[in-house]
Write a structure and sequence with these properties.
heterodimer; A: 328 residues; Rossmann fold; four-stranded parallel β-sheet; B: 444 residues; Urease, subunit C, domain 1; 18 strands; globular
């Protein structure tokens, strides 16, 4: 099977996936449609493909991650690509090498696609300017996390059948959340109404200019909402205290059974994880019928397979013509 | 004895309210006369410079230039920094105290003068540190520094955060009639910020530095200047409210001056969308409404000087992630064309106003007898071709560093000759003097 055999019609044309802000609604839908298509082709993820045979995907993770890195590695392998992992504690500078030199070194090892996570916004953009490889942003500081945004949107679309006309609330640490920014751009482009809700210290004033509504009272907005996405409180990115205590945060913004009962019956609860049980949501909610947290994980795999396929195609990478026994 | 006659140029000397076609005669490094027509007869060894179509102005003065020597010679040294100054039209610069170690004692100040003398380019006056090591705790040996040649005092980009220390510094420097050049910024509000705080920073997820960080410290500094009567100069003003507050303070007679940089007049925070480290500077690039206020401040004289805020940085220091890349722009050699683009081309300032902000304005701040073509003054002169179209090429900088966001930019107006003490110290290569309007294929 060749890469062209699994791709479906739809606008794309991007060499890199750096964020959802610059994508069109059509391009976002291409990824979502391809992800659902791959779900069928792989028979629910059970069948391994070999369409990216010969392709090397490097995971450059300059920030701790287990979930996203595992998901990307698995997605690449499901498509038949090889993966290499490069993990560094923080900046390349700690070793006295410039970041660009580090990246060029890795590329010189014969890498085709680079998946990059970094604590500094814009670092994947820096890579994209200097590397010949396709670059996939797996989270750049507090800027964007496009595949997380796409998988959240896919999860919502699979539940409701559409995005247009839905009201989605992003709850929690909006200021430090790359997931929030990617969700906002993607959801607005597809016609959703987006409300951001959190402590006023964690919701930047200017965010409304992106086209979202701003609320500080979760209980007030909850009855209008079709989906809540509970963003993790990013303790590691905060400088100093943004709210007085965790208990106070949970009191005003934690999703618990009582709040679930005040919401619409069909309320969908998402959490990008890792979840802090008892802070953003109670175990009752996390494991309850409204929660789609585990669907998010499986959809994440599909979305990442779709993105890797699309970028591989733009990079002009073709699996070598199948030799005897090449097909799975 | 060197003698120069500069003929037929448009002479602009704002200190004397002069703007017209004149001949300028310098004898023995001193301006002798400015007349409609000066005869070349009878002056031995006279060099004649034809300046028809050019602007003839006093050499520019920059109130704070980071020369990086000693300690950071990978970025710049006195010889390369002063060569860059000449190419930018500067005949006098004040050297910032932020070398390593900082200039907080007499011998350090004397070393700066010695290195500048060895380079033999432009005039260099040291700035001394306000506090020992620029740590903001104890006063540096200010009197000894004055003896060593310091014309002013500054802890560079490290604000004197302790108000008591700043108060004593303003009181103590009064004794020597020297200004304190302060970088007004509340450190805890600016800490970790890489750009202006606003919609763009929110969108990009980059940590912002709010305008309030500069406004608050400006307020404090004005209050201390009023309390002490010391001479205060605020460097790199970038915010609307700071300009307003400075204007009000000046109207109340407080001894207060201010400067602004060319890049803060031309670029807005939107450029950070590229995540390019070359745009990172301190203070950060602000939004258009702030720029409009800065221009108003330049027009009415609230802001008396424009400084390149020259911050040369070896290019590998910028080839890293945005938050670890040090802020700063290598600015001496692009100051004039960027000012023309930001101020003259849109009609905000007249040539005379612009040149005033580059000559007598900064001279007044530092208390220097330069920045004028008055007969009897040193013949520090710059010749400008105001209509020469050219492309900025960082690779051709005389500075040792290349960290400019303007590389490849098409600009208009260029310094063609620079004279110090009546001696021709810089001359643009003839091949670069031809006006070319065709788009340059190297532009990017």
């Amino acid at each position: 099977m060749q890469l062209s055999d699994i791709l479906i019609e739809g606008p794309w044309g991007e060499r890199h996936l750096l964020g959802l802000e610059k994508l069109s609604a059509g391009q976002i839908e291409t990824v979502l449609n391809l992800a659902e298509h791959l779900d069928r082709v792989t028979e629910g993820g059970t069948r391994k493909l070999d369409v990216l045979r010969g392709l090397v995907v490097a995971n450059l993770f300059f920030e701790n991650s287990t979930r996203t890195k595992t998901s990307f590695s698995l997605a690449a392998r499901r498509l038949g690509a090889d993966t290499v992992d490069f993990t560094a504690s923080s900046s390349s500078l700690s070793k006295g090498e410039t970041f660009i030199d580090t990246a060029l070194t890795i590329e010189a090892m014969g890498v085709h696609l680079v998946v990059c996570r970094h604590r500094t916004p814009g670092t994947p953009h820096l890579l994209a300017r200097h590397l010949k490889s396709g670059v996939l942003n797996a989270g750049d500081g507090t800027h964007e996390h496009p595949t997380q945004g796409l998988l959240d949107i896919l999860t919502i679309r699979r539940r409701f059948g559409h995005i247009h006309g839905l009201t989605v609330a992003l709850v929690g640490d909006i200021r430090h959340s790359r997931v929030a920014r990617s969700n906002i751009h993607g959801l607005l482009k597809l016609g959703a109404r987006v409300i951001v809700c959190g402590p006023s210290t964690l919701v930047p004033q200017e965010i409304s200019k992106l086209g979202v509504e701003v609320a500080c009272n979760l209980d007030k907005i909850l009855p209008e909402v079709d989906c809540v996405n509970l963003l993790r409180v990013q303790f590691e990115r905060q400088r100093g205290a943004f709210f007085p205590s965790i208990a106070e945060y949970a009191h005003f913004f934690g999703m618990n059974g009582q709040r679930i009962r005040r919401a619409k019956d069909h309320l969908l609860v998402l959490a990008p994880g890792p979840i802090n049980r008892g802070v953003e949501l109670t175990p009752e909610v996390a494991d309850g019928p409204h929660s789609a947290i585990l669907n998010q994980v499986s959809n994440g795999l599909l979305v990442r397979m779709a993105c890797l396929s699309l970028l591989a195609k733009e990079a002009g990478i073709q699996a070598p013509v199948a030799a005897a026994g090449g097909a799975v | 004895m060197n003698s120069v006659l500069i003929r037929g140029g448009r002479v602009i000397d704002p200190a004397n309210g002069l703007d017209g076609i004149y001949d300028v005669l310098s004898v023995g490094g001193i301006i002798r006369s400015i007349e409609h027509h000066i005869s070349a007869d009878g002056i031995e060894g006279l060099q004649i410079l034809e300046a028809s179509g050019l602007i003839v102005a006093p050499g520019f003065i920059d109130t704070h230039v980071s020369l990086r020597e000693p300690g950071c010679e990978e970025d710049e040294c006195a010889a390369t920094g002063t060569a860059a100054a000449l190419a930018g039209g500067f005949t006098t610069i004040a050297a910032m105290s932020d070398s390593d170690p900082v200039v907080d004692n007499r011998s350090s100040a004397e070393f700066i003068r010695l290195q500048a003398e060895r380079a033999g380019n432009c005039r260099v006056f040291p700035l001394g540190a306000v506090t020992k090591g620029s740590h903001g705790q104890e006063l540096a040996e200010i009197g000894q520094l004055v003896d060593g040649g310091a014309v002013g005092f500054s802890d560079a980009k490290r604000p004197v955060a302790n108000s008591e220390v700043m108060r004593r510094a303003l009181e103590y420097t009064k004794m020597f009639d020297r200004p304190i050049l302060h970088f007004a910024m509340v450190p805890e509000l600016a800490d970790g910020g890489v750009m202006h705080e606003g919609f763009v920073s929110t969108r990009l997820g980059l940590r912002g530095i709010p305008a309030a960080a500069q406004d608050i410290m400006t307020d404090r500094d004005i209050a201390l200047a009023q309390l002490t009567g010391g001479r205060l100069h605020l460097m790199c003003v970038t915010t609307r409210d700071a300009v307003d507050r400075i204007r009000i303070a000046q109207s109340r007679g407080i001894a207060l001056t201010a400067d602004v940089t060319p890049h803060h007049l031309l670029l807005t925070d939107d450029v950070m969308e590229t995540f390019d480290t070359l745009y990172r500077c301190n203070p950060p690039l602000r939004s258009q409404s702030h720029i409009d206020s800065l221009i108003d401040g330049l027009k009415d004289g609230t802001i008396a000087a424009i400084s390149a805020d020259h911050q040369p940085l070896a290019i590998e220091k910028k080839a890293v992630e945005l938050d670890v890349a040090p802020p700063g722009i290598c600015g001496l050699e692009t100051l004039l064309p960027i000012c023309i683009q930001a101020l003259i081309a849109p009609g905000h300032l007249t040539w005379s106003q612009l040149i005033a902000r580059l000559t007598c304005g900064p001279a007044g701040i530092l208390g220097l007898p330069h920045g004028t073509l008055s007969p009897g003054a040193a013949a520090d002169i710059v010749l400008i071709d105001p209509s020469l179209n050219w492309t900025v090429r960082a690779s051709e900088f005389r500075s040792r560093s290349r960290n400019t966001p303007f590389d490849g930019r098409m600009v208009t107006g260029r310094v063609v000759k620079t004279l110090v003490d009546g001696e021709l110290r810089y001359s643009l290569a003839i091949s670069d003097q031809k006006t070319s309007t065709k788009l340059d294929s190297h532009a990017n």
